[in-house]
Write a structure and sequence with these properties.
The chain is an alpha/beta fold and 426 residues long. 37% of the residues lie in helices and 17% in strands.
Length: 426
C-alpha cells in the first residue's frame, strides 16, 4: 500500500505556486506534506498537515477533491490530477494507528502542557467545534465542549452515511482530539439546559458552532403532507420509513442529496429520483458521489424544479416544471428560470427536501444572539456575534456546508478568539 501511495506522491510536481493549496478550503500545505510521503516520512507529513487541520483521515475520504484541491492541480490540465485526497487519507490513517499522535505532534509544535488560566466554552461538537477546540487547546487555553448528543461528531456521526465515512474512523479522530485534554459535557443543548448568560460567568470566551439543523423549506404547496422529509433531519435521526416498493424523490444537488439518495436506494426503494434545477455540471455534489449514485440505480432529472407536492393527506405525486439557465446581472452563475407550460406530474410516495438548513433563530434570539438578513447568526470580520464574548462559525453563520469549510471556519475563528483573549489580558 505504501509503495502505491509513494508512486502517487511522486506524480506531484511540487509546484512553486501550488494551485492545489488555493483550492483547499483549509489551505493545507499540500506539496510539502506530499514531498514527505515521497521520502516515506509519514511522521513529518502528518506534522505538516497538523499545522492546518485535525481531520486529514476524514477530509481525505469525503471532501469533493475534484472541485477543490485536485480540481486546481496542474497535472489535471492534460491528464489525471495528483490523488491528493487518497494521499491525505493515508497519512491521516497512519496517524490514527499511533496512540496520541495529535497530542505528541502539538507538544512538538509548542503546545504548553499546562493551560494558561483562560477558559473557552465551545457549544457544538461537530467539525467546526472539534477543530476550534483543538487549535484553542494547542494555544494553551482550557477548553470545554458542550454537546447536545450523547457523543461528539455532529454531521460526521449523524449526517454522513457509514458507506462514505466509517464511524470507527470518526471515533478514532475524536479520541485523538480529546487526548489533548479537552473536557466534554454531553446532553447539553443551548436553549434547553444550557444558557449563554450562565456560561459567560465562567468562561472568558464562547464559540458557537451548533450548525444549521432546522430544515429549509421550499415554500411550495403540499410541503406539509405526510411523507415529506428534510434531508439533514432524515440522515441525522435515521428514522426512515419502509421504502420497499416505493418511489422517492430527492430535491437538491449537494452531497446531502446524494447521501439521502444512495441511503434510500440501499434501504430498498423501488425508484429514487434526484431532481435538480440546474445542470449536472453545476451540481455542488462531488462528481464521484454522483457517478456512484448512478451506478447504484439512482435516477436524475436535471434542469427540473418541483412546484407542488400533491396528495390527500400523504404524498401521492409531485408536480415538476422544466427550467433553463439564463444570464442575470449581478449573479456569478446562470440562474434557473421556469419554462412556461412545461409542467408535468410524477407518481411519488416520499419526497426528501435536501435543500439545506437554517439556524434556529428563535432560540438564538432568546440567547440574545443577533440574526442577520440571511437568517444565520450575524458575525463581524472576526467571527464575533452581537455579544462581545461570543464568537460563531460553521453552518450557523451560513458557511459553505462542507466539512472542510466548517473546519476552516472553526480554525480561523479560534485564531480570532486567541487574539481577543491576548488583548483582553494585556
Amino acid at each position: 500500500m505504501k509503495e502505491e501511495i509513494k508512486e502517487k506522491a511522486e506524480y506531484c510536481l511540487n509546484c512553486q505556486n501550488p494551485q492545489c493549496r488555493i483550492g483547499c478550503p483549509l489551505g493545507n500545505h499540500i506539496p510539502d506534506f506530499i514531498a514527505q510521503v515521497k521520502q516515506g516520512d509519514y511522521q513529518k507529513a502528518y506534522e505538516i498537515l497538523c499545522e492546518t487541520t485535525v481531520l486529514p483521515a476524514i477530509c481525505g475520504r469525503i471532501c469533493p477533491h475534484q472541485k477543490q484541491c485536485q480540481g486546481k492541480c496542474i497535472r489535471g490540465i492534460k491528464g489525471e490530477p495528483v490523488s491528493i485526497g487518497e494521499i491525505e487519507k493515508t497519512v491521516g490513517d497512519w496517524a490514527l494507528e499511533k496512540e496520541e499522535s495529535l497530542l505528541n505532534c502539538y507538544l512538538k509544535q509548542g503546545m504548553p502542557k499546562e493551560t494558561n488560566g483562560k477558559k473557552v466554552a465551545v457549544i457544538g461538537g461537530g467539525p467546526s467545534g472539534l477543530t476550534a477546540s483543538s487549535f484553542l487547546r494547542k494555544a494553551g487555553y482550557q477548553v470545554t465542549i458542550y454537546e447536545k448528543q450523547k457523543d461528539l461528531g455532529g454531521i460526521l456521526k449523524r449526517g454522513i452515511p457509514e458507506f462514505r465515512l466509517s464511524k470507527d474512523i470518526v471515533e478514532k479522530v475524536i479520541a485523538q482530539i480529546l487526548s489533548l485534554g479537552i473536557h466534554v459535557e454531553y446532553e447539553k443543548e443551548l436553549g434547553r439546559n444550557l444558557n449563554i448568560a450562565e456560561l459567560e460567568k465562567e468562561y472568558d470566551a464562547i464559540f458557537l458552532s451548533i450548525g444549521a439543523n432546522i430544515p429549509r423549506k421550499m415554500m411550495i404547496e403540499g410541503e406539509e403532507l405526510e411523507g415529506v422529509f428534510g434531508g439533514n433531519s432524515l440522515l441525522e435521526l435515521g428514522n426512515h420509513p419502509d421504502y420497499h416498493g416505493k418511489k422517492v424523490s430527492i430535491i437538491g444537488g449537494g452531497n446531502v442529496a446524494m447521501d439521502c439518495a444512495r441511503t434510500i436506494k440501499r434501504l430498498g426503494a423501488e425508484q429514487v429520483v434526484v431532481i435538480y434545477r440546474r445542470s449536472q455540471e453545476e451540481m455542488p455534489a462531488e462528481v464521484k458521489e454522483i457517478e456512484d449514485a448512478k451506478q447504484e440505480g439512482v435516477e436524475f432529472l436535471f434542469l427540473t424544479n418541483i412546484t407542488k407536492v400533491l396528495g390527500d393527506e400523504k404524498v401521492e405525486q409531485i408536480e415538476c416544471i422544466k427550467t433553463m439557465l439564463v444570464e442575470k446581472e449581478g449573479e456569478k452563475r446562470k440562474v434557473p428560470v421556469d419554462i412556461e407550460d412545461s409542467n408535468y406530474c410524477i407518481p411519488m410516495d416520499y419526497v426528501v427536501m435536501a435543500v439545506g438548513g437554517k439556524a434556529d433563530k428563535e432560540m438564538l434570539k432568546e440567547q440574545d444572539i443577533a440574526i442577520g438578513t440571511r437568517k444565520y447568526v450575524s458575525v463581524d470580520e472576526n467571527g464575533k456575534t452581537s455579544n462581545q464574548k461570543v464568537f460563531a462559525g460553521g453552518d450557523v453563520v451560513g458557511q459553505t456546508a462542507t466539512v472542510a469549510w466548517a473546519a476552516r471556519d472553526g480554525r480561523e475563528v479560534a485564531k480570532k478568539i486567541i487574539e481577543y483573549l491576548r488583548v483582553d489580558s494585556e
